[in-house]
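AraC family transcriptional regulator
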Amino acid sequence: MKWITREHPKIDRLACPWLIRRFIDPQAVIIFVPFNEVLSKAEQLKAIPFDIPGVEYTHYGNECTFDYLIKKYNIMDAAVNAMAPIVRGADTDHHEIAVQAAGLWAISAGLAYNHNDDYELLEKGMLIYDALYSWAKYLQKEKHTQQPFENLLLDVFNKFLKEKKGTGKKIPAWAQELKDLIQDHIDTNLSLKELSKDLSINPSYLSREFSKHFGNLSFGEYIRKQRIERAMELMATPTYSLTEIAYLTGFSDQSHFTRIFKKHTGQSPSDYRKKMRKK
């Protein structure tokens, strides 16, 4: 089948050919012509016109042509439907619809600026929408920095460690602020390895510097100690079950919580709680 639309594509006129080729018509031929020639060329070439006013495949209300194609061909693919509000937001300048919409518009506008040939532009656009599809299908929950709390830790190290390195202070400001942040976010999984990579600091050096200011404990030992102490505080009240306490203090499950708690205290969480209630 042949599909025809107006020249100089950016959002919908790249997203739609991608959707057509990937989910509707793998052998589709996409044709770009000046706006005032679309209908006449469509009739001449027996092509389906899209994304222009007055044809079937176009905008309806607040929705764009990409949305119409999904409904027309009953495309149920979850990743495609996750892409739809991003394409719609970028194509209609309603970037509030999806947080990724502004980024898609920026990339598409820049791509169109760099490539004057519409067919070369389409080739590059197919790569962009393949990438967006992969993100929507496999990577929506992934973050460049996996734990949001790591951003706070990076701020602390960037602010204090790099500035105060070599000043001779026994207790650097970053150590105290880091301690406070860990205490405030004890339920979050922290990664010293990720920190060292992002800071371009040798992991061994960072680990050694950490222990100097945290009771000669390694990063992992200190985190576990803080979690156990927090768990003890929570066990003083009947509000939470032991399973809930394990979750609230950052352990992977109750079994992990029990094992670490017993290692630190010499007794299981249930025995510890029973003794607390007898007091």
